[in-house]
Amino acid sequence: MFQLLKEAWLGSPPIKFESAFGMNESVERLKAATSRWGTGLFSVSKERAVGTVTESRVSLYRVIPMVNNSFKPIFVGRFEHDASGVVLVGRFGMHWSVKIFLAIWMGICAFGTAASLSSSTSTLNGGVLSLSGLGMLAFGIALMWFGAWLSRNDPVWLGDLIGKALGAEKSSVTTTSGQVLAAKASADGASRFIRLATAGLSFTGLLVCASAITGILSYQGGTRGEIITHYTDVRLRFMAGVYGVFLLAMAFGVYRRSLFAWRMGFVVFASAAAFQPFFLLTMGGFGGEWTPVAIMGFFSVVVLFVWGRWWYAQREHFLE
After folding, report:
1. Does an H or E element contain 44, and which?
2. For a disulfide at 116, which of 52, 130, 227, 307, Cβ 3.0-4.6 Å?
3. Dihedrals φ, ψ of 78, to 5°?
4. What stretches pass through the bilayer (predicted)?
5. pLDDT tens across 144-157, in order?
6. 98 with 83: CB under 8 angstroms?
7. Separation in Å, CA 241 to CA 70, 206, 229, 234, 278
8. H-helix or E-strand containing 93?
9. pLDDT tens figures, 79-119
């Protein structure tokens, strides 16, 4: 835990990539292997390295579709000449803007805690305020650790990509402290995707099946009581049950990395996009008005396009 926090805040030890090419060719090869566009959420359909590549400055980070992590490590370095030829020297660390945000957050929490302890208010109020400040401080530290933990494989993945682009014989990265980062990011990425997709489909399938079995469409609880909505049309309930079973079968197919399951993924997205307008028309949620339904249908098509584009790029994780 402390090692993750230390490297996230202070950065990793300096890392050196030896290139098998000249300066200009090294820059061009690394630039060709990366992209300048992409913000990390909906801009790409498959994971890739994004950033700036010039001789005097290289700044790269890993982009995973549909995932945005502000605490991800960013490689910052520059190309240099040494006795062995052209090398890329730099280190991994959080973006400077994230560090400033965390510093302000923790500074305010620490100042508030100290002020509450030294204030002239009652002991009870001062204790509550100081505990609140300590809790917010701990939350900030935990948030940084969790973000760093989620992106713990990013340096390996980026190191493998940079090494291959620069013509390294072995896809490994050696730091000045002698640490070696093994290149196993591709397998880790595939297994992580399969696990997450299987878990998501299984959970959704079980939830939909439970809704169809109990007949409960939605549930809202609060201080004013409970609001339970039931299916008004038995056809919708039957369709929900079939859809839930289909999702569970999809989860099993994804777990087995079946190519048929990958193809059926497009059916899942298309049916989910079509179900929302159909549900609104059947339930009469807008009093028979077509305009809101058409707007909902339009946004469903947009969402279908984004998710379908992302799912198409996941073909590499499935077997023939």
Report:
1. none
2. 130
3. -155, 155
4. 100-117, 129-150, 193-216, 236-255, 267-287, 293-312
5. 888 888 888 888 88
6. no
7. 39, 10, 17, 11, 16
8. strand 85-93
9. 988 887 888 988 888 888 888 888 888 788 777 777 666 65
Q: What is the pLDDT of residues 39-84, one digit of tens each?
A: 444 455 677 888 889 988 999 988 877 677 888 888 998 898 888 7
Write out pLDDT tens, residues 243-253: 889 899 999 98
Give the start-to-end residue ranges of the domains of the chain: 2-98+141-182, 189-317
User: 171, 17 in Cβ contact below 8 A?
Assistant: no
**Cα–Cα distance measured from residue 242 to residue 236, given in angstroms and rounded to the nearest whole number:** 10
| DSSP-derived secondary structure letter, 316 | G
- Give the position of tokens 């799912």: 311
Tokens in use for 107? 């500074």
φ and ψ at residue 68, rounded to 5 degrees:
-130, 120
Between strands 15-18 and 180-181, the pairing is unpaired
Which two three-digit tokens encode residue 226?
A: 């409970």
195 membership: H or E segment, kind and range = helix 185-214
Which residues lie closer than 8 Å to 295 by C-beta, 6 or more apart?
A: none
Q: What distance separates the 2 farthest-apart alpha carbons in the chain?
A: 77
